[in-house]
Design goal:
Elements lengths: L36 E7 L3 H6 L3 H19 L6 E3 L3 E7 L2
Antiparallel strand pairs: 1-3, 2-3
Length: about 100
């Protein structure tokens, strides 16, 4: 998504930043994700067995690759994501 006319496209980049760790406990620092954003979750199939067999580097590379793929899809829009080792979770604007 390059330049969207939808004002919610900048939801994440426009969030206020809190500077003190204590801000994590303040309710006004939390904001609802816009209704036109989607939750995206990636998970590497068979990752538990692969890690047990010593293939954790391959699992991590695939998990990180899912982040790269999603970031390439949303292009210039900043989005939040969490890397889980064997996948990732995101919220992205609908496009």
């Amino acid at each position: 998504m390059k330049n969207s006319s939808n004002s919610s496209a900048n939801f994440y980049s426009d969030l206020p930043i809190f500077r003190k760790f204590e801000g994590i406990a303040e309710g006004n620092n939390y904001h609802d994700v816009p209704d036109d954003w989607l939750v995206v979750v990636s998970d590497i199939k068979g990752s538990t067995k692969a890690i047990e067999s010593g293939r954790y580097k391959e699992v991590n590379i695939l998990g990180a690759s899912s982040i790269i793929a999603v970031l390439n899809c949303v292009e210039d829009v900043e989005i939040p994501f969490v890397f889980g080792g064997d996948g990732a979770s995101f919220v992205i604007p609908e496009f």
